[in-house]
Amino acid sequence: MKPRNFKILVILTIALFLTACRNQEPVPDTPTATALPTGTSTSTPTATETQLPNSTPTSTSTNTPEPTATATRTVPFLRDVQVVEEAGFSFQSIIGFSVSIRPNQATIASPDEKFLLTMLINAGPDQISLEGAMEDITQAAANDFGDFETGEPYEYIIDGFNGIAVDVSGILFGNETNGRFVIVNPGGNRFFHAAGVANVDRWEMEGSEIFDLIMGSVTIFDLDASVSACPISTDASYGYTQENAIKVGGGAFDGPPRERAYLDNLLGPEGQSITYERTGSMPYEDTFLDLYSLTYAGLASPITLYLDEYSFEELLAPVGFTCSGPFPLSAP
Question: Quick one: pLDDT at residue 270?
Fold first, then answer.
């Protein structure tokens, strides 16, 4: 028999999912697009939009069905990285979709709320297997919904961590629904759960693909990792937003080399080398911000950071990054 405390967590997971599905709370600055772009995009992504390549991301299921020949393939765009700090993971959503973030959970919904996805990390007993954890989740769903069926489990990889997924179908909120449940164990007794659902036609047309694209953007952090060589911000917006840009100082003459020195010191969450490219600048209030696109091995889509060379504050690494050493910059 599996420990009762994990059973309670599983039931709570399902309950949180249902609550989130019924009560979407968009995060600030949610894009105002009312529909997901379709067809082949010819626009150039802005600094806060990253065009996803047409190739299938590495962190996806090998059993994902291909779109039918008559389907209109959706070409999504990913938003900037968003961090669920207390749970220890980050992700990218789709431009135009609403996002609700709670302490250990994130929920994503399409504008018409016909596609819903929730992700969270919770703790389970050390001895439970992925198969056992998935059995608990699917059983809890069947108990809650009644008319709910699950397929055979298959391998699913998120951020390099092995996991399992099952495809599900049933009646949800009175509609015929298809979806996918995924569970990954990134180490110890931590379990990353994801559940995505949509009505049958929407899931077959684009829901399954969007689910895999978002899963391909997920990064799971090691909460027990040793202290970084530089201080890391505890504010998930640091560097990721115009309002909380990284203030390197130096002005128009010394600012650019100071920006490069800052970025040269950054590493990925697992010590990966960073590559970066300046993609432009923009006015913001009484200053100008430089925009940099960063990538590292295993990242599904580039990350945009905002740097301010006209102001200086103590330098930190953004959430999701580490450093090769202390920042070689002081107040100019």
Answer: 80
